[in-house]
Inverse folding.
């Protein structure tokens, strides 16, 4: 941030905890905590991916399951893959970038740090709607709530697609009389 350059130059500890202001033990402690946090997310993604592969292999060889159960399992595995990609985009990439910038400790990247923190906090804003959309029972439930709300407001007529509008042409009385006179 350009406005903070003078403050950071005069007091370097305002940009965070560095070796000169906090001491060696604090810097190593913070580094270990950040490293543990940065390694926990990829490890959990690996475990989720292993579970996904194991389950899909089981579903491919399973023949005693009903088609409905197979479709439900496929839907849930697809939702799990979507959630894993959301975690990678919104948590892993920003966390790794934050950790890398924290290790190198350059004050030039303050704006980038703020953007990554905003992306990091938007995870739940994307994850919850994805869950509600990709899992069919949740999607049906939310559509029912939406229809009920529109019905209460009186806008439910826009949701009905099965109505057919019949337009009947009305002939004028003069045209009707002239056609009767000819006969």
């Amino acid at each position: 941030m350009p406005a903070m350059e003078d403050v950071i130059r005069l007091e370097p500890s305002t940009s965070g905890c560095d070796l000169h202001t906090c001491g060696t033990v604090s810097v190593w402690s913070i580094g270990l905590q950040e490293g543990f946090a940065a390694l926990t997310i990829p490890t959990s993604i690996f475990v989720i991916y292993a579970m996904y592969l194991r389950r899909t292999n089981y579903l491919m060889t399973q023949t005693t399951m009903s088609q409905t159960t197979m479709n439900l399992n496929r839907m849930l595995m697809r939702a799990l893959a979507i959630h894993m990609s959301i975690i990678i985009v919104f948590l892993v990439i920003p966390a790794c970038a934050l950790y890398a910038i924290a290790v190198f400790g350059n004050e030039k990247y303050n704006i980038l740090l703020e953007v990554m923190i905003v992306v990091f906090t938007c995870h739940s804003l994307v994850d919850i709607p994805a869950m509600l959309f990709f899992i069919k029972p949740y999607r049906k439930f939310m559509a029912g709530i939406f229809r009920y709300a529109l019905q209460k407001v009186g806008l439910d007529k826009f949701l009905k697609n099965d109505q057919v509008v019949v337009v009947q042409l009305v002939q004028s009385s003069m045209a009707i009389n002239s056609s009767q006179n000819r006969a």
In short: Residues 76 and 135 are 7 Å apart (CA to CA). The chain has a mean pLDDT of 74. The chain has one domain: 2-182. Residues 24-61 form the longest helix (38 residues).
